[in-house]
Amino acid sequence: MPNHTLISQCRKDFPILKREVNGYPLAYLDNAATTQKPKSVIDAITNFYENHNSNVSRGVYTLAEEATEIYESGRDAVANFIGAEDSGTIIFTSGTTESIKLVSSAWGQKNLKKGDRIILTEMEHHSNIVPWQLAAKSYGIELVYWPVTTEGRLDLALLEELLTNSVKLLAFTMVSNVLGCINPVEQITEIAHSHGVPVLVDSAQAVSRMSIKVSEWDCDFLAFSGHKVYGPTGIGVLYAKKERLEEMLPFQGGGGMIRHVEKQSSTWAVPPQKFEAGTPPVAQVPGLKAALEYLKQYGIKQIERHDNELTEHALNQLTEFPDLELYGPSEIQNRTGVVSFNLQNVHSHDVAQVLDESGIALRAGHHCTQVLHERLGVPATVRMSFGIYNDPSEIDRMFSALDQARAIFLH
Ligand SMILES: Cc1ncc(COP(=O)(O)O)c(C=O)c1O
Questions:
Q1: Is 239 in a helix, a strand, or coil?
Q2: Residues with CB under 6 A from ligand 1
Q3: Residue 342 sits in which domain range?
Q4: Which of 190, 199, 316, 347 sits between 20 and 30 A of 212, alpha carbons compared?
Q5: DSSP, res 140
Q6: pLDDT tens-digit series, residues 330-348
Q7: Residue 6 confidence (pLDDT)
Q8: Cα(208) to centroid(ligand 1), Å
Q9: Does 160 lie in the same domain as 84?
């Protein structure tokens, strides 16, 4: 299917794309923050509440059994989508942030001690930095940063130097939510494993754009959020290898994660339930499953190609303007549709505000990556990020509206 068919077919699936903003058709270019939801996802959630709503893994009545079956079939769908051999390795969380927190806490408690080190990259989102800073305070560990090159990539040769004996984990993003670069997970994992170091992959920006193969890549942990893959908010996934799950202590205590509770102590359910205390995101699971089915319907290869075409279209125009500074690789290889830039001498928030007046939604600020922005030497950037429904004409509209920003602020 050629990609213009993808756009014309899928745009009608997203009710929100029919609306106007400030008298213009909405051009939604903030997909790295969250994606819009197709009707099938909205319907799956409504259908759950209208026909099957109950808590899971508790009741023996029909509705409870249906809800449990729906919930567990969502787990199977996630495992299948990310290439995990066993759905018991999939834990439902509230999002990427909680997935990483779960590892820093449940795995950290068991495996980290004073003097140990964890490697992070300078391009991490705060949700893959701050939990480790909290862990550093609790366990006395040190955080070591793998630097970002001037082209906005990671240098694999440098990693070898950082992997000393005291390193206990490498936690890195698969796709930067600012630079748009794709980090080679399989190669990085192989290098880390050759030094006996497990890896955590933050795939929040990757799952909607490219195929994920956790078992083939052999990564130890992988985290993502439902709302960034056209699914609902309030649900995320942590994949963890079986042996990692077995060595982890519980994350939170409460209903659903125990085998037996006595006055002074308890024993735990087996994973993944051991890590899903309390009422999980029940209605969000069918929503997430519908989102993954939606992506499969168009095919991840075609989605990836579409994303590449939009990225190339944006990069070609961006590099034409001498007053636009691009942050991240300017070549298309190993790059995705997250494109950050600044208009010289204009604050990114002012740019975003002017663009909003033309119905263009994009993000300005530090994008929860202050360490990276410090490395880039700017406090904030403007970021466009593409989704499956975006059209090259929306990018053209963004560049035309930038002319207005120039006219307002620079004359
Ligand atoms: C690379 C990356 N990691 C983690 C997150 C955090 O995701 P969430 O807020 O859904 O937990 C984001 C969100 O923008 C992200 O881009």
A1: strand
A2: 32, 95-97, 125, 127-128, 173, 177, 202, 204-205, 225
A3: 3-30+299-410
A4: 316
A5: -
A6: 999 999 999 999 999 999 9
A7: 72
A8: 13
A9: yes
